[in-house]
Write a structure and sequence with these properties.
The complex is a heterodimer of chains A (378) and B (72).
Chain A lengths: L1 E2 L11 H11 L11 H20 L8 E4 L2 H12 L5 E5 L4 H11 L4 E5 L6 H11 L4 E7 L11 H10 L3 E5 L18 E5 L11 E5 L37 H17 L1 H20 L4 E3 L13 E5 L4 H12 L1 E2 L1 E3 L4 H6 L7 E4 L7 H14 L1
Parallel strand pairs in A: 1-11, 3-4, 3-5, 5-6, 6-7
Antiparallel strand pairs in A: 2-8, 7-8, 9-10, 10-13, 12-13
Helix pairs in contact in A: 1-7, 2-7, 3-4, 8-11, 9-11
Chain B lengths: L1 E6 L2 H13 L4 E6 L9 E6 L3 H10 L4 E7 L1
The chains are: A alpha/beta (378), B alpha+beta (72).
């Protein structure tokens, strides 16, 4: 199979990830619970993974790295743990439902929000739109690094820096960007960084992280056993325990750490350049095919991530994706990609799109196969 | 006799161990048995010596110390 659905999860995973997960299963005592040798060994492995991730993102303290189920859970912790009745939050016009839905739920209990329009390839206008969205009750900004549908990148560091000038907390969704964009918390104004572990970081599914880069700690969403201060009926306030109730995804965490070592070895910038080269090739060739509809400008500068959406005129995106799979053995993702706001921004809400996302393992020949298949389908 | 520094969690204990190691003090992470009134389920670092210096270093690095004990 030619797998171009890496925006959903990267596949295949690097060998080091598979072997690390298998190895972790040999030390599968519960970390942070007991004092026997195997439990301490497991705790050590989780701590090392935490320290690796902190180092990778420039976080000041491994304790500030919270392991979550996925990026969605990390975003929910920040959004629901920070906002209260009367607060206002700003989000972008390209947000995923992982951001929109929790905020829409809070709207019913008195939180208000404003959607700031992202202007493709014009960071000044985008920044201005975010500035204009601020009001006296604005407490939090939540924005994605880049659209998971169209690859359009936001000037997220500048947006966060601007928000800090107004005393607004900042939360960045790096689901599609982590592993492809250099994110360094030590010199940024990002207060909360949310990342998927299983996309550009090449970890197993069921992994995500929240990195807290501020002294303002959200409320917990889930309370329970943490293996610490168990006589106290109240949830501990210490990090990461406050947000890690119940047994963690031990083998997943170890696999995520291995995925990050793979990314380090390849180099974030190298991965970005390689995948952008593939997406530019795909864009150029698809643009030559009659009836193919592309939605963005050519993604040839740093304002894009390697994510491309297209359609074929008068053909349903779900049907095209199904034919790509069944006749050509090419995996793509069709529909709304859990991002209705982004589709509304590009007038594709009614049609959806077919999304193509490469990975470190995608070859130019894979993209050529896609182009040939689209030629035949159109 | 070994010295035990009681800390708030296993993460805190491992972080403390790594900080002490950077200062040339070697310690071991250990689970600490529950004692009445002290809150069950905690971890700490076990040291052979340098206890006062270690406590100072951990305080300087904002590691919350919950208690100290001698261990036979």
């Amino acid at each position: 199979m030619i797998y171009l659905d890496n925006g959903a999860t990267t596949f295949p995973k690097p060998n080091i990830v598979t072997s690390s997960v298998n190895n972790a299963m040999k030390f599968s005592a519960n970390p942070g619970r007991a004092g026997h040798r195997l439990a301490i060994k497991a705790s050590e492995m989780v701590y090392n993974a935490r320290a690796d991730i902190a180092d990778f993102f420039g976080a000041k303290d491994p304790s500030n790295v919270i392991f979550t189920l996925n990026c969605t859970e990390a975003l929910n912790i920040v959004i629901k743990g920070t906002l209260k009745k009367g607060d206002h939050v700003i989000i972008s016009s390209l947000e995923h439902n992982a951001v929109l839905r929790p905020i829409e739920k809070l709207r019913k209990s008195g939180v208000t929000y404003t959607i700031a329009e992202v202007v493709e390839n014009d960071n000044e206008k985008t920044l201005s739109n975010f500035r204009n969205a601020i009001n006296e009750n604005t407490k939090l900004l939540v924005c994605t690094c880049a659209s998971n549908v169209f690859g359009v990148k936001l000037p997220f560091n500048r947006i966060c820096a601007m928000c800090h000038q107004y005393g607004i907390l900042t939360c960045v969704d790096s689901a599609q960007a982590a592993g492809l964009v250099d994110i360094n918390l030590s010199n940024s104004s990002i207060d909360y960084l949310c990342a998927a572990g299983h996309k550009g970081l090449y970890g197993p599914m069921g992994t995500g992280v929240l990195i807290i880069n501020t002294d303002i700690i959200p409320d917990s969403l889930v309370e329970g056993g943490t293996g610490s201060n168990s006589a106290n009926y109240n949830q501990p306030e210490i990090l990461p325990d406050k947000f890690e109730s119940g047994t963690v995804n031990f083998s997943g965490i170890i696999g995520l750490s291995a995925g990050i070592s793979f990314v380090r070895q390849r180099g974030v910038n190298n991965l970005y350049k390689k995948e952008m080269s593939l997406i530019n090739y795909a864009y150029t060739e698809l643009a030559k095919i009659p009836n193919v509809i592309l939605y963005t400008q050519k993604p040839e500068n740093e304002n894009y991530l390697p994510v491309l959406s297209f359609n074929i005129k008068d053909k349903d995106c779900e049907s095209v994706s199904e034919v790509l799979s069944s006749k050509f053995n090419i995996a793509t993702r069709s529909g709304l990609h859990c991002a209705p706001l982004a589709h509304k921004s590009y007038n594709t809400f009614d049609s959806g799109t077919i999304r193509v996302v490469p990975s470190a393992f995608t070859a130019k020949s894979d993209i050529k196969s896609l182009i040939n298949a689209v030629y035949k389908i159109k | 006799m070994d010295n035990l520094i009681r800390l708030s969690s296993v993460t805190s204990a491992m972080k403390a161990r790594d900080i002490l190691k950077k200062h040339g003090i070697y310690s071991k992470v250990q689970r600490i048995p529950a004692k009445k009134g002290q809150g069950a389920c905690s971890y700490g670092v076990l040291l052979k010596n340098n206890i006062e210096k270690a406590v100072g270093i951990l305080n300087d690095n904002n590691i919350k110390i919950l208690g100290r004990a001698d261990v036979l």
